[in-house]
Structures are given as structure tokens and as C-alpha cells.
Amino acid sequence: MSRIYTVCFGLLLILAGYASSANAQAEAGAQSLLMAPGARSDGMGRAYVAVANDANAIWWNPGGLAFATGRNASFMYAKLVPDLADDVFFSYLSYAQHVEGWGGLAASMGYLSYGESEGRDVDGNPTGTFTSYEISPAIAYGTEIMKDMGFGVALKLVRVDLAPADVTQDRKDGQGTTFAADLGALYKLPQWKASVGMAIQNLGPNIAYIDQDQSDPLGRNAKLGFAVTPFENELHHVMVAADVNRSLLSHGAWIENVGAEYEFNRLLALRLGYINDERGTIQAMTYGLGLSHSGFR
Description:
Blueprint lengths: L1 H19 L18 H5 L13 H4 L10 E9 L9 E11 L3 E18 L5 E21 L2 E15 L10 E16 L4 E10 L17 E12 L3 E12 L6 E11 L3 E10 L4 E10 L6
Antiparallel strand pairs: 1-2, 2-3, 3-4, 4-5, 5-6, 6-7, 7-8, 8-9, 9-10, 10-11, 11-12
């Protein structure tokens, strides 16, 4: 098993080096792959790569699927610019299930709507309306490669449809399709009630829309995180987590995330976090409230 452990982490390092050396001068394409799902993770400042114990592990860290129990489904819907447009939104559906003797299987579907636009010809005459969107289905598998050590892989397809041919300058469909893979590992430390997680996201070919010579790289990213439960009894549960993220594109910058969760009687959860993303100009506190009852959260 130790040999498998070494090979898996060697593969992670090799792919990280490949991604970081890729020619990626442009901004990342396929924005739907970068949108983090889950109200719980948002409330905890998006410090989640070492937590990843629900259906959204397929996005955060597929290695967490190795420890999946039972069945878990998650859905989110968020308007992105509610003050400007009602039809610009992101939705995400995910499902994970434990398979005895194998580990965890998961599937997800992300949908990003850019809203409806009005097309015009070269003379400025209206040609009708069209909707721009991205859709990104994924499947994943995670398993224990040694005791308390989970490793997982997620495979994704992304389809971006920006505009039909009759409204583009070159009279070609403004569409692009590509695929990507995520690799993740989660190592549990039961004696310390802690876990360490890492993930590399969106390793795959660039995406091109009309001109293949002007393709955009995917948002390749590496995450490393730590989570610990300093206090726990029958009624109270406290967890603290921290992540560091690094874009593997040429303009990459560090992002730091910290978060905490207090849960009472497995019924009420209070969450607090902080995101420090200087390049993305997000330096702010996050907070959240969670309710759980009869298997629903």
C-alpha cells in the first residue's frame, strides 16, 4: 500500500508541474468550473478541502468520497447579479453514495446562465434573442488506498455556448467544449481528530470558441487544507479549518481561507470564516447558519 501512496502523490506533483508550466497568458475560460458550491463551505470562508464530507466533495476534494457514508444529495441556486438581471444565475446539483467494498461514487451537474441577449446583424438590425450559458457535468470516484488515506479522481466535461453563428462577426458558432480532471487526497488523523486534504483542479486542454488559436486555459488550481476538531461531546461539536489556494496559471496568486463551525446537538450549526483573495479583491468575513433534521440539512 505504501507504494500506491507514493505513486499517487507523485502523480499529483507531476500534474501540478505540468499545469503550472502551461502557456496561460489569458484569463481562465469556463467560469462555471470555478464556482464553489455549498452554503456550508461558504459560511466557513471556503476552507473546505480537508472537510469535504458531503455530496459537494466531488468539487472540493474527490479524495473525501473515500469516506462517504450512505447517500447524500445537494442542490444550490444563486442569482449572481440580482440587482441587474434575474436570468444570470448559477445552479449546482450533486449526489454521492457509498459502495460497500469500493468507496464513494458521485455525480454532479453545474449550470451557469449568462442571461438572455439581443442579437444584431452587421447593420445593427435586431435578429432575435439568444441565451448564453455553460453546462458542466462530472463523475467521480474515491477510495481508501491505505488506512485513513483516501484518494479520488473527478472527470468533467464543460460546454460553453456564448452566441449563435448569426450574431458573431465571423459567422461561426461561439461555442466551445473541453474536458478536465480533478485529483484529490484526504488523510485522516484520528488520534488528533484532524485531517489534511489536497486537491488539484481543472487539469485539461484549453477551451476555444471561434478561433482555435485564441483559446483560453481552464482555471487550474491547487489547494491544501487542514481541519481539526478541538472539542466534541454528545451535544457540542467545534471544528476549525484553514486552506491555501494557488492558481496554476501564469498570473496565479495565493488565496487564504479560514473557517470555523459550531454545531449543537446535530441540529443547529453556526459558521464563521474569512477569505483573503487580494487579486480577486475579496477580503471579507463570511458567516452562515445551518439547520439539520431527519437527514435534511
